[in-house]
Design brief:
alpha/beta, FAD/NAD(P)-binding domain, 5-stranded parallel β-sheet, 14 helices, globular, binds flavin-adenine dinucleotide, dihydrolipoyl dehydrogenase (NADH) activity, Pyr_nucl-diS_OxRdtase_dimer, FAD/NAD-bd_sf
Length: 467
């Protein structure tokens, strides 16, 4: 029986990053993964495959509808879905193989099988053939992630009624796609199939899409998606999905109750959220406490109530994002190696990889109002940005929110082409406690989309030049 400093259960972005950092800091590390490949939800069935299809479908859309106005004549593009899916699989393969390589490079021992905690210091691994190995370790990190939240009364078969996993693998473009849930995953995958030809209707329980995002952003973004052909039924709930011939009938009711309406669909995507995944881990026997929402309870330093057992990523409180899980993995590894580790939860960017992209960091206007913070807001539209005009990507804006007294930037929200890249200058500024004046006085290369960030900052502390 080997003795480890650390055994990490789950090799998603939280687990594998934690393992690598700990190994870099001199700890003897093993990882346990029940999937055949490393990388977790993110690399296998989440962030990476969805971005491969988002990019490919965006190119298809550009070739079909964007080229002509730039003076490029091509015949109507034809979809070769199997090749697009092969591109997605190649991207998954190269990423998961990359993680396997990094684990090896850092001398981390990988175990494939279901990890179960026998007690603090002991993890049992059951391999696919049923054989069992017990690993002894000083510390255990649970990084088992999350799973799709089911919709009561609706059975997911991953063919016609799909979760995000099935929606990444459809064999043909559905004529009509009903997306249940107007959150990030539903809008991204709805965009993919919409660009490839599906008629997409999004049914959302709340009165806005993108739940916690800034209201102004959500409203404008919905308008843009509608212009692209996406239909929305807000303040509505799906109460049933029934087979009818080869298709489906989706029953939709007003969220507050009332007369039901039936929508026809070829495919229904259930994307109402994700929930923490702890099945088979033996938490009850090990005495590890969960909160009311089934998340592993931690003390702010990722320690559970059982000494020597820690948890990070989607399985604990906080936004279910790969980079949040990664940063927690690094911080915890540093703490386990005797260093100081820290994650600044006020500066975790969130990105929706649609076209245009939506990106945000820090507080929304609604949050600032609710907290009674007096703030000033500066906004700049991409329609007034030279580079955006040159690229025909003038949809969207940048909004900077800063404390009215100190000018410290509290939130930045962007809708626009490349917003997911631009948001990071705001994140760095906010990490350093910067002001809108700092941002507005920082020289930005011309012509770039990022100049709109500078102009929004200028509008926040005084006046923009180009508006
Ligand atoms: C379609 C989709 C798109 C997404 N896009 C983005 C995006 O663009 N950006 C972003 O930041 N986030 C995105 N996410 C969310 C992101 O995937 C998660 O936040 C992230 O993967 C969480 O990382 P994690 O390490 O906590 O868990 P996971 O990635 O879920 O990894 C957990 C791993 O633990 C393994 N495991 C579970 N139990 C056991 C056990 N008992 N023994 C052994 N192994 C076990 C699982 O097999 C899995 O591999 C997306 C998610 C989906 C579904």
């Amino acid at each position: 029986m080997s003795q480890y400093d650390l055994v990490v259960i789950g090799t998603g972005p939280g687990g594998y990053v934690c393992a690598i950092k700990a190994a870099q800091l001199g700890l003897k590390v093993a990882v346990v993964e029940k999937r055949a490949t490393h990388g977790g939800t993110c690399l296998n069935v989440g962030c990476i495959p969805s971005k491969a299809l988002l990019h490919a479908s965006e190119m298809f859309e550009e070739a079909g509808h964007g080229f002509e106005s730039l003076g490029i004549k091509v015949s109507k593009p034809k979809l070769d879905l199997p090749v697009m899916m092969k591109h997605k699989q190649d991207v998954i393969d190269s990423n998961v193989n990359g993680v396997a390589f990094l684990l090896k490079k850092n001398k981390i021992e990988p175990f494939h099988g279901l990890g179960r905690i026998l007690s603090a210091g002991k993890v049992e691994v059951t391999a696919e053939d049923g054989s069992k190995t017990v690993l002894e370790t000083k510390n255990i990190v649970i990084a088992t992630g999350s799973e799709v939240m089911p919709l009561p009364g609706v059975e997911i078969d991953e063919k016609q009624v799909v979760s995000s996993t099935g929606a990444l693998e459809l064999e043909k473009v559905p004529g009509k796609l009903v997306v249940v849930g107007g959150g990030v995953i539903g809008l991204e995958l709805g965009s993919v199939w919409g660009r490839l030809g599906a008629e997409v209707t999004v049914v959302e329980f709340m009165d806005k899409i993108l739940g916690p995002m800034d209201g102004d952003v959500s409203k404008n973004f919905q308008r843009m998606l509608k212009k692209q052909g996406m239909e929305f039924k807000l303040s509505s709930k799906v109460t049933g999905v029934a087979k009818k011939g080869k298709g489906l009938e989706v029953t939709v009711e007003p969220a507050k109750g009332g007369d039901a309406q039936v929508l026809e669909a070829d495919v229904v995507l259930v994307a109402i959220g994700r929930r923490p995944y702890t099945e088979g881990l033996g938490l009850q026997e090990a005495g590890v406490a969960l909160d009311a929402r089934g998340r592993i309870e931690t003390n702010g330093h990722y320690a559970t109530n059982v000494p020597g057992i820690y948890a990070i990523g989607d399985v604990i409180v906080g936004p279910m994002l790969a980079h949040k899980a990664e940063d927690e993995g690094v911080a915890l590894a540093e703490m386990l190696a005797g260093q100081a580790g820290h994650v600044n939860y006020d500066v975790i960017p969130g990105v929706v990889y649609t076209q245009p992209e939506v990106a945000s960091v820090g507080k929304t206007e609604e949050e600032l109002k609710a907290a009674g913070v007096t703030y000033k807001a500066g906004k700049f539209a991409f329609a007034a940005n030279g580079r955006a005009r040159a690229m025909n990507h003038t949809d969207g804006f940048v909004k900077v929110l800063a404390d009215a007294e100190t000018d410290r930037v509290l939130g930045v929200h962007i809708i626009g082409f490349g917003a997911g890249e631009m948001i990071h200058e705001a994140a760095v500024l906010m990490e350093f406690g910067g002001s809108s004046e700092d941002l507005g006085r920082t020289c930005h290369a011309h012509p770039t989309m990022s100049e709109a960030v500078k102009e929004a900052a200028l509008s926040t502390f005084f006046k923009p030049i180009h508006a």
